[in-house]
């Protein structure tokens, strides 16, 4: 009885839909057909196809072993002919149909991002969306589940190129096979990512802003020795030449607006007294006041002495951490959620728990905290690696060091005119040698 009542209740709706379909013609009929397909299909994606955050450090014996195994897997993929190029797929999303959807499905199946039996062959369903998200996660792209130009470009990097990337990076990973320490920090430049590691496990993970293509972050080993709270910033000579003087030529108020002082022999002088159209500006020292809202280092600098003059720091422009393209500095490394990062660094230093870190930041005062035990810091260049669960990660060879001609898949975001007119342009701490 209940079943009969349910059917009779929906008859008017069904009749209305049928009438609307006949009146509206083929376009509405396609929509109605798609709706029926949606109702009839189980669109939930399996959790086994998701990429989970790995607790295995990029620099570890387990990563080496997993990457070596992935080399063999990709050799097999290449021997079978690799994968076909995907065209016309940018913009595809749940509900899309057509040949490009089939091409995306097949591409995802080849690399294990989609189960061959999941969903329907002709529709961009939630299985495909989940597979695209997994693929995006493995390539450092925003996990939207929709096909973007960057996602299509990453799919079209040939299998043999990916294989050579893996082979190149296995060698790099092996170079770190020694004892890296009980506690250490990894900055993987191509991934624009910072890991803190303790007892062989990743403790915290941070997005990072790293060096531009023409002002590259160096590959190096160093040690974090000191935390500078609410730091001032002395502008490196290279940035004075490349950035500061040209900015002053365009805007005589730039230094004042950004609270940068000019010092000559320890005495402050007026910007108006300098001839900015000559080399006079290169003779002075430039120091930016501390301040979270305008200082390029934000509220914290991590001192890691090294011959390149670079360091790690907070930033007053945190929006970059949400971008896929984070190659925006002059060589230094900006760290997302820097308070968590420095709390971990100061863990073994008495008197510096999270509460004291917060107090130091909020005080606005210049405070230095020297680490009781310096922490090793490794700035690395790894563009391909695998984790023990069988997930392989690829990143753009942003500095072109792999030697295998990996096509670029991500580009710097285009500035929005309205945003550019309202946001002050700021300097980025950088490499003295650049």
Automatic annotation (TrEMBL):
GO terms for biological process: cell wall organization; peptidoglycan biosynthetic process; regulation of cell shape. It comes from the Bacteria. The keyword Hydrolase does not apply. Residues 183-358 form the L,D-TPase catalytic domain. The active site is at 313 (proton donor/acceptor), 332 (nucleophile). SUPFAM superfamilies: L,D-transpeptidase catalytic domain-like, PGBD-like. InterPro entries: LD-transpeptidase_YkuD-like (IPR052905), LD_TPept_cat_dom (IPR005490), Peptidoglycan-bd-like (IPR002477), PGBD-like_sf (IPR036365), PGBDSf (IPR036366), Transpep_catalytic_dom (IPR038063). One of its GO terms (molecular function) is transferase activity. Pathway: Cell wall biogenesis; peptidoglycan biosynthesis. The keyword Hydrolase does not apply. Keywords: Cell shape, Cell wall biogenesis/degradation, Peptidoglycan synthesis, Transferase. PANTHER family: L,D-TRANSPEPTIDASE HI_1667-RELATED, L,D-TRANSPEPTIDASE YCBB-RELATED. Belongs to the YkuD family. This is L,D-TPase catalytic domain-containing protein.
